[in-house]
Amino acid sequence: MENTLLILGLLKLEEMHGYQLSDLIDKRLRYLTDLKKPTLYHLLGKLEADGEVTKSVSREGNRPERYTYKLTKHGATHFEQLLRQNLQDAHAAYFNDDFGLLFLSEISAPEARTYLELKRLRVQEHIVQIEQAVGAHTVGTPAYYTLRHHELHLKTELTWLTELMAQLKKRAVREDILKCLAAEEKIKRQKNKFAKENK
Fold this sequence. Notes:
extended, 2 domains, three-stranded antiparallel sheet, mainly alpha, Arc Repressor Mutant, subunit A
């Protein structure tokens, strides 16, 4: 849904060739999405089939044919619906880091600290980059708010990593992950049962 919102929104601002869209997303919106070119073209094809965008063919000199994509009225309406929905939703955040953390006790604490220190250095580099990007935009503009959102998330990530590494000076507690997850599910069932009984 978010990638569809992004594509429709960009085409609402300006009709574009597919490669222009891909280039814009790859070079200027990397912090926002990892949308790859094949997926972009697949989505453009779907949006065209749904009547939300149209494409026209153009050719300049000996260059290959290019397709220019343009938003339709139906696409503009769908964009506005997606925009309003996106702005009010509280989006669940999933972090790829958490897969590794789930099995943190499967490697030694010193080794884990080494890898996490590399991660922390990369986060610090990203913070420097995003701070520069934030500084290039006027406070109050949509680009400023979007970049500031990422800046604050990265700074929270840095705080969390620092705390985690301090705790790893002691050995991470070894546990049976499956038993731990099962216990969590049991607690959840008990809470639901209690809530139903006390309605």
